Structures are given as structure tokens and as C-alpha cells.
Amino acid sequence: MSVTVPRSDLADTVVERLVASYSAAADPERAAQMKAYMKDVAPFLGLTSPERRDLARAVLAGTPRPDEADCAALALRCWELPEREYAYFAVDYLRRHVKRCSSGFLPVARHLVTTHSWWDTVDLLAAHVVGGLVAADPELRSVMDEWIEDDNLWVARTALLHQLRHKTATDTDRLFAYCVRQSGHPDFFIRKAIGWCLREYAKTDPDAVRAFVEAERGRLAPLSVREALKNL
What we know:
Leucine-rich Repeat Variant, mainly alpha
């Protein structure tokens, strides 16, 4: 599904400030190191996390609370900029304002997950944005049922990780079913995600996770089992 960038005066203002602020603080030497560390997924400006967040606070000072269109416009426009720090800014912004967004924001979230995909943006979008949308509208669980079947591994990883912060509100049957569904996946990122979501839920119900892993040990990859049981 294609998405279009909505009109947003707020996004226009913020992105203009952001580009001026971030580009002025760029460090080319550090940028090259960051790009190499992140497997060349994108170019970087070379901003450290503390620098980036300090600059972001200044950029956002005095701006109003966004509505859903503002969130979509800002995120999509940041995603169009080449340097990765702009995507990080967008993810932080969406985490802060996800409650301003309805279930209609999910196609935008999917676009972000599937564009310039790597764990650094996908995992935060899964746990904090997609997870927040599903928590607010349980009818979106049926969409997660589709995502777990998706051929795009980042979409499937998002489905696995979207309940990371749900704790006692976790839909346990879905969590375990998703793990079983992808248990034979050959990719590291899916196998790691299976173990991660189980390990996180084990903080809420360790007995359930222990029993599930024992029952499905023959299907789960050794990596998934190790991750799931790491703290048990």
C-alpha cells in the first residue's frame, strides 16, 4: 500500500529547523564510522545520541502538539532524507506522540518498517509505535495475523515484537502462535526476535514461557531457545 505525505505546517517548520540544526553539527569522520558499524544501511551525519537529542529538544521547543497528519508528514519526510539521524528523530517523535494517532496510522508505520529497513528503526517502531496502535485498537490484531505471514522479514519481525511492552495485557495465544509460525525461519533476525519476545514475556509469566519452550523445543532454533530462557 502506497502512502502519501499529508500537508502539515508543523512538519514543514520542524523539518526545516531539523535539517539546519543537524547538518550544522555533522561530524564526517564519526559519520563514516557509524555507517560502517550499521552495515551501510544509510549514510550518517555523525551525531552521537546525546547530541542528537539535545538538538532535537531545541528544534521542537515551542512547537504545538501534533495531530495524526502532522505525525505522518513529519515521519515520512524524515524518512525521505538520506542520513539516518533524521529517521531516529522521527522514531523518537512517534514514540512520544503515538497516542495522538488512530489505527489509520498503521499503513504509515508499515511504510517506515519496510523502507530502508534495519533493526535500529524497526525494533523501536514495532515495540513503541505498532505496539501502541494495537494496544489502543485490539481490532488491529487481525492485521498482525497477516504481518506474521509476510514474506518481508521486517514485517514479520514487527509482528513478533509488537507486544514487547504489553506485559499482563499480552495476547499470549498470539504470542506463542507467532513464535511457532516463524520457528523454522532461516534468518537470524527472526530467530532472535522469537527469543527476545519470549524472554520479555517471561518477566510477566515465566512459567508459561518455560512450558512453551519445553513443548516446542524441537521446532525452535537453538538461538531462540537460548534467548528465551536467558533470564530463567
